[in-house]
Amino acid sequence: MFASIVYTLAFLAHVMEWSATRAVSRAGTTRAAVAAPASGAGGSASGTTLTATAGPDGEADEDAELRIEKWGRIGVALTIVAVLLHFAALVSRGLGSDPIRVPWGNMYEFTLAGAFGVSLMYLVLGRRHNLRWMGLPVTGFEIIVLMLAVLLLYVPAGPLVPALHSYWLVIHVMAAVIASGAFAVGAIASLLFLVKERSINRGRLRPGGYLDRLPDLPSLDRVAYRLHAFGFPIWTFAALVAGPVWAEYAWGSYWNWDPKEVWAFISWVVYAAYLHARATAGWRGRAAAVIALVGFATLLFNFVGINFFFGGGSMHSYAGG
């Protein structure tokens, strides 16, 4: 899949961006160590030395910052190309079926669509909230998910089962993909919050490292909250409105206590608790991040675990094919 190759190139570009930042940090630390004893001498000669080196050092820092910006922009540009190729792959999957259909008739196609939602939300919301610092984990996530999809879940394109012949399927899945994408990016922000907080508390935050370059902890917490607040109403519509309407069309009942329906509701409850705790109890930081990750874990279990643990016992068992 060409999208996977371009995602890999985008990931490498963000790795270069991070490496260039570490180089700047090491250079700054070295100059500070050299300048400290010189200024401590207190003589005019030391002042002359510092002034003489300020110009070249400033130019070097500016060049280094330009390199960082260049690699960052390359990473984002490659991610945009990868998303376009990813979308083309989804469209081709649908057009390659006989008859032509929407490209989410089995677990392999659901995985492709869900991964597309993650990268799309990163790009769309990243422009608004300046999330380029999330480019490294997002592209890494895409590489892993697409690799696992191809290796473990691939099935040839085929016709939809009768239960999927409904325009409510299109509405339901599109809403679920958008919401899941926002939840996934929010989960990444929550995970980065916990990792950075732990590094700070243990005194292991390396200057110039990736964690050091991330926004401060309150900003990470705020980004995670905004992403979840964006995704929650869309998930509400997907799980509690479009899903039941589709179920009534397919099986004659709005609610069947099917495992996927139950776990979709569980995910909704966890995310509702997260937003409620933030709004009323004032939960911030670690507690909120843990709840957000629990919500994402229920989302993943609903998406993957139901098919493996319940199999044919679910009315959605076709999704595992």
Automatic annotation (TrEMBL):
Any one GO CC term of the record: plasma membrane
Top-level lineage group: Bacteria
Keywords from the UniProt entry: Cytochrome c-type biogenesis, Membrane, Transmembrane, Transmembrane helix
Membrane-spanning residues: 74-95, 107-126, 133-155, 167-195, 223-242, 262-281, 288-310
Annotated protein name in UniProt: C-type cytochrome biogenesis protein CcsB
Membrane topology classification: Multi-pass membrane protein
Main location, first listed in the record: membrane
Entry keyword Transmembrane helix: yes
Pfam family membership, one: Cytochrom_C_asm
Domain Cytochrome c assembly protein: residue ranges: 104-308
InterPro entries tied to this protein: Cyt_c_assembly (IPR002541), Cyt_c_biogenesis_CcsA (IPR017562), Cyt_c_biogenesis_CcsA/CcmC (IPR045062)
GO molecular function, one term: heme binding
